Amino acid sequence: MKIAFIDFINWDYNIETVYQKPLGGAHSALCYLAEALAKKGHEVFLLNNTTKAENSCGVACFSLKTVADELLQSLDVLIITLGAGQGSKLKPFLRNNTRMILWTQHAHDQPGVQALHNSLERDIYDGMFLVSNWQRDRFYQHFKCDLSRTFILRNAIAPFFSQLFPDNTPILPHKSQPPVLAYTSTPFRGLDLLLDIFPKIRAAIPGTKLKVFSSMKVYQVKETEDEYASLYLRCQETEGVEYIGSLSQPELAKELKSITALVYPNTFAETSCIAVMEAMASGCWVVTSDLGALPETTAGFASLIPINNDWETYKNLFIQATIKVLQTSAIEAENHLRKQVDYVNQNYNWNVRAEQLIELINNITPKPPLPQKAESNQQQNYELIPVNLKAINLIAFPDWNQSEEVINLELSRVIKSFLTHPDKNEMTLLIEASQISEEDGNLALSAVIMNLLMEEELDIEEEPNICLIRDLNSKQWSALLPRIQYRIVLENEDKKKAEKAILLEKISSTMVWEIVKPPSLEKYKNQITKLVENNPYQLSIEEYSYITDLVSKRAPGNFLIFSLGKDSGLWLEVNKNGKTVFLEDNIDWFNEVTKNYPEMEAYLVKYGTKRKEWLKLLLEYNQGYESLSMELPAHILESKWDFIFVDAPAGYSDEMPGRMKSIYLAAQLAFKSEKTDIFVHDCDRIVENIYGGYFLHQENFVTQVRKLNHYRIGLMRRQGA
């Protein structure tokens, strides 16, 4: 079977990476499953943002930028990993009998799957692979996924953990005394609680130590950019705690073999939790919460602590459960851990998962191709006009004898102009292609469209109506040309074909379609460069340029900015003659900037939060409390905003206010407006990422530029959501 996994995250990795450095659970799972399938004789591909095309552990790895349409057309199965949102874009490039699967580890409330609220995206998949019953139940409740096409494909353990304790090998002799505990998950999932808890465990069981294997390296975050540095420092300052950081899986397996217990006071609803599986395989007791799918994953072997939003009670119960585990008799402990290890080795195995995947795929019937929408006003005579025309129809005559680079550039400009037009759903673009074969023409067109969809910020809700026409006779031209409103004049045209069409039906009277090029940013280039040089840890040139380009195209407008700083003058200039309002909580910045721009409209605000409260505030909001509201001048709440930029308050440590309220308010204001572009900076951080996806909705996500996320909220999007 020919199977491809496709991953759109901007990481450079291949299958061997999982053996060499830390990777997140979902990416590790992808690598091990792909390798297991290849070992069983299947032809397996990984399509991602690798910089090097190569064979890695039997899997052919290619960059998304160089994937040939022939490969996509040849697949039996395409598995889209991690997040939803790309299915409706990829489906047109696949054969009708290719099964397209979404395999995601995300919970229902995570930004990466919010596109499933859109029925077009949700129904495009032939099947969904989820990792637990808990996850499947939530997907059905929130997205109404077709349960007959939703299957459980559980996670498994890395090969290094599978035979740490073969049959009849005693476990307890390998465990450290006094006991050593471990935390192996990401820092934002409960490490702060554990550091509160551990001193009391150590007081009850003297000599107990804690090793912390945690960092943001699993998300490819550099050590110098890891926002949890203060938490790691706290580890180093806490007696009995050894902070080690993230390890590769071979290294982690060696460490866990001597660990007594995994202590994971998580605050995050896990859909599966590979960290727990691997601790169980390593002969570790597991003490954790009962959130999410953890009861399924731990299969009765763990001590599960209930969470009822009473954190002090949770911590006390966690301490008691951990002490009880550490005081278990040797005979009882050996018996318990032996059963646990055997269960994991038998049930959480990637070779078994590969067999299950093939069995599932063989039982999935490809959905029939989506029916084409019938034209509402006129019935087409396909013998005369072999294309589906719309209310607005355009035609272009490219010279296919030009080099591939020239043709691709020309077509990219034409198709991008078409796809970005507000009336694109009522338009047809015809491209004359008699100079080349039908197959070559379709391949060229598919390659250009796919590259645009992958690389550009294009908002495509339904398949674009772009058609190649070839070898039309005089009657067909005579029937077609009166329906053409625009001719696109190209730099490199098939002039003979264009002139013939003009002679046949006076096409010269048709209007010429102008390919609009984006306005130059030259005007602001020096200003942006100076800002970046003087503020190296703020926005990048790319981020400033992106916002400036979009705002300047629609200026003057109403622009609300959560922040005051050295870039405030730029925003005033970009939105000249428009309404630009600033909100700032830092009194020093407020005084300095307003002194330099005495005419600006700026307001001093108070957030009254700390970043470490982000989860509590979100839970309270879900329970109906007004925990994210704040006082603002009435005219700000009543205005309709064209642009909102969230770059404040500070959120680089747990004691800072965090951007929970500013993102929430941006969403509330945007949903009251006609059409709002929202920019959220520092989306490499957990709060900005989760709150942005939750309140601004992932289906409104446009693109990401470095750490800047762009959302667009408008009436049409809200009605369709």
Written account of the structure:
The longest helix is centred in the middle third of the chain and has 18 residues, at 330-347. The model is unreliable at 372-383, 504-520 and 715-721 (pLDDT under 50). The chain has four domains: 2-152, Glycogen Phosphorylase B (Rossmann fold, 3-Layer(aba) Sandwich); 160-346, Glycogen Phosphorylase B (Rossmann fold); 392-513, Aldehyde Dehydrogenase, Chain A, domain 2 (3-Layer(aba) Sandwich); 522-720, Rossmann fold. Helix 19 packs antiparallel against helix 20. The strands form four sheets. The protein has an eight-stranded mixed beta sheet. A seven-stranded mixed beta sheet has the order 22-21-20-23-24-26-25, sandwiched between helices. The chain has a six-stranded parallel beta sheet with strand order 11-10-9-12-13-14, sandwiched between helices. By secondary structure, the protein is an alpha/beta fold. It contains 27 helices and 26 strands.
Features:
16% strand; alpha/beta; Aldehyde Dehydrogenase, Chain A, domain 2; globular; 4 domains; Rossmann fold; single chain; 38% helix; disordered C terminus; 721 residues
Topology at a glance:
Layout: E1 2-6, H1 17-20, H2 25-39, E2 43-48, E3 54-56, E4 59-63, H3 69-74, E5 77-81, H4 87-90, E6 99-103, H5 119-123, E7 127-130, H6 133-143, E8 150-152, E9 180-183, H7 191-204, E10 209-212, H8 229-237, E11 241-243, H9 249-256, E12 261-264, H10 274-281, E13 285-289, H11 294-298, E14 303-305, H12 311-326, H13 330-347, H14 350-362, E15 392-396, H15 404-419, E16 427-432, H16 438-455, E17 466-469, H17 474-480, E18 486-488, H18 495-505, E19 511-513, H19 522-534, H20 541-554, E20 558-562, H21 568-574, E21 579-584, H22 587-596, E22 601-604, H23 614-622, H24 634-638, E23 643-646, H25 660-670, E24 675-680, H26 686-696, E25 701-705, E26 708-714, H27 715-720
Parallel strand pairs: 1-2, 1-5, 2-4, 5-6, 6-7, 7-8, 9-10, 9-12, 10-11, 12-13, 13-14, 15-16, 15-18, 16-17, 18-19, 20-21, 20-23, 21-22, 23-24
Antiparallel strand pairs: 3-4, 24-26, 25-26
Helix pairs in contact: 2-14, 7-12, 10-13, 15-16, 19-20, 25-26
